[in-house]
Amino acid sequence: MKKFEGKVVLVTGAGHGIGKQIATQFAQQGANTVIVDYNTETGEKTAEEITTKYTKSLFVQADVSSPEAMMNVRQKVFEEFGRIDTLVLNAGVAFKNKVNNITFEEWNKTLSINLNGLFTTVKAFYNDFLTNQGSIVYISSGSALSGTGGGVSYPASKAGGEGLMRGLAKELGPKGVNVNAIAPRLIDTGEMMRVNYPTQEALDAVLEKIPVRRFGTVNDVANLAVFLADPDNSYIQGQTILLDGGRTIA
Fold first, then answer.
1. What angle (nearest 5°) sits at the alpha carbon of residue 105, between those of residues 87 and 99?
2. Would you say residue 3 lies in a domain?
3. In terms of DSSP H, where are the helices of 33-152?
4. Which of 13, 14, 46, 156 lies 20 to 30 Å from 37, alpha-carbon distance?
């Protein structure tokens, strides 16, 4: 029997990149998955691929910052599967602007999705976790610690999310729910890496700062997400695990 056979795992921002790989690896372990994404095209494609190759996957289009939208997601999840076991909170946006040139619209949008979106997602399923032991995994960022990677709004939103997760860990821990965060740095998701480091020289320079001498992969993040959701590892609680190949300590 696979680790997550019969379980239901919801992943936000799962239409591509890290979120897609996380959903895929849970499906490989037997879980039914719920793909929540704002982009209908990529979300539907991901759900179809997972259903064809592994287990049933449901796509629900939603803006995670909308409480009404996330309550609708919950309704569809229970209509389809009748339960929820794991939330992976991955959806996010970034604007690479400093204080002097970021607009209030950009600032508010970043916090609306990256921070409020965490709260609305958890709030929609909160009562379910009070009665059903499970796990919540938040995909944060090393930027919450370093202050880099996305202007000022991005690290601020990620640091706020880690605070929310620690509060939830204290609140839900006695109910048998595990809550932890993953803080990746320099994960190669393809195109975005090339935008931030457009030349081979730039890539080589940043690689020299990473002790393991490679960039992180979406598999690295997904492996850790599955690990943290595994009940066998339930004594890990309220933690943010920095996934950076040693770059930060270097």
1. 100
2. no
3. 40-53, 67-80, 104-111, 117-131, 143-146
4. 156
Q: Which long-range contacts (CB under 8 A, 24 or more apart) does 235-238 make?
A: 236/178, 236/180, 237/169, 237/173, 237/178, 237/179, 237/180, 238/165, 238/166, 238/169, 238/170, 238/173, 238/179, 238/180
Amino acid present at 53: K
pTM value is 0.95
CATH code for position 122: 3.40.50.720
Active site residue 38: no
Is the distance from CB of 138 to CB of 162 less than 8 angstroms?
Answer: yes
Q: Per the structure block, which two tokens stand in for 186?
A: 């320099």
Q: Whole domain around residue 30: which residue ranges?
A: 8-189+217-243
The catalytically annotated residue of 38, 154, 197, 235 is 154
User: What is the chain's mean pLDDT, rounded?
Assistant: 94
pLDDT over threshold 80, residue 194: no
Which element (helix H / strand E) includes 33? strand 32-37
In this structure, is residue 203 part of a structural domain?
no
